[in-house]
Sequence to fold (206 residues):
Amino acid sequence: MSPMRARLKNAKLKTSVPPRWRKEVERVLITEAQLARRVKTLAGEVEKDFRGREMVIVSLLSGTVMFLADLIRHLDLPLRLDFMGVSSYGSGTESGELVFTKELRLEVHGRDVLLVDDILDTGKTMSRVLPKIRALKPRRIKTCVLLDKPARRVEKIHADYVGFAIPDLFVVGYGLDFAERYRNLPFVGVLHPHIYQESGKTKPAP
Ligand code: 5GP
Ligand code: MG
Fold:
């Protein structure tokens, strides 16, 4: 195959859903290459704002795994990393009550904190987590999300660093799950509605 044809084939593969996932994933919303580029840019912005400070990154489990791993490898700063576990036990269309499944272990008092989440949707998660961290008296808190769905917001909240603003679609991949699956997809894709309809839900509860 000529280098030109190989390149074209490669480009096509990256924007279409790999055959293995086609029955479950409708389309690729954000490609691997787009994610890589944007995350690197985002890390540059964070680095500029936090330069000269020792930061604590607080990442929410488990949807942030890939985003976090890619983000921090571009951060040329001294940093500490901790996780908070937050789950929402809801059924049907609404996200249910939030339950903390893992608490912070590191000291954040007087420190500069970057709170990282996978996606800012209704804003309920962030608006529960932020006061919890603020109560620990950090020097400041900035928020960073890979994805933002402004159309679904019910809480008055925004993120300081946003990877991509997306429409009101249920997405999976690059750490994001549906029923704990699809986190390993290297791209962000739109789930076929039949997947969550078959599971008896009209729409997934985040
Ligand atoms: P919020 O509390 O802002 O409504 O929702 C935030 C959480 O809901 C995210 O951390 C994420 O776990 C989940 N969530 C919201 N929208 C989506 C989505 O489109 N796909 C997936 N996989 N999770 C979502
Ligand atoms: Mg989450």
Q: What stands out?
A: Helices lie at 3-15, 32-50, 65-72, 124-134, 193-198. The mean pLDDT is 91. The pocket of guanosine-5'-monophosphate (ligand 1) is lined by residues 63, 95, 117-125, 170-172, 176-178, 206 (CB under 6 Å).
